[in-house]
Amino acid sequence: MFSPRGPSLRELTVQALSSVERGYDLLAPKFDHTPFRTPDGIIEATAEALAERGPFDAGLDVCCGTGAGLTVLRAVCQGPITGVDFSAGMLAEAGNQHPGATLVRADVRALPFEPSFDLAVSFGALGHFLPEERPALFEGVHRALKPGGLFAFAIGEPPPMTSIAHWVLLGFDGVMRVRNAVWRPPFVMYYRTTPLPALRKDLTAAGFAVEIEALETMGRRGDGTPRCWLVLARRAA
To answer: Where do the Methyltransferase domain residues begin and end (predicted)?
Structure first.
């Protein structure tokens, strides 16, 4: 649908009517040829920003998917890198792209790690968690980091109400809510449930000290607002 190598409309429909786990198992072989993959510009900008704070030792990619975040970890970590996801299909693709990484299949709302990582990253995953599920996710990441460890992720600035993008995202979330009200199993994917103030609140409650900075290489909108932010949440030393 998006490109000759991407999924067809029929394949996307089957995915959308599946559970999140089954849907991503089906989509995994063609995921990198869809707009759902985090753009390379964000990956590169995040790696550049984190390189200024590194080097790090062991790294963890939370909800690693096909491994975009593992690319960042490989660039800034001197030690082993690990990806965790609950989709076996996505992990298989990540393994093909990052044969040296350790890959773990797990529900990230109950991460199975002790404090062993210096850096954790995540890309494009927060919309798959309802607001009431974020505390468990953030507490698990906090638990997986060594004292002084850093959790970093990029998040886009919401488009202004006057833009077409605002209404497209609003419509998408509305369709997903209707779908989940009438169809089981649910497919949790929302674009408007992760405002920065709520994320900061949940991260702080999980024990992180939070900084938020603009990813300047992603540019600014006409009103001067950064297009993308980098959230930096640090576990106390």
So the answer is: 60-149
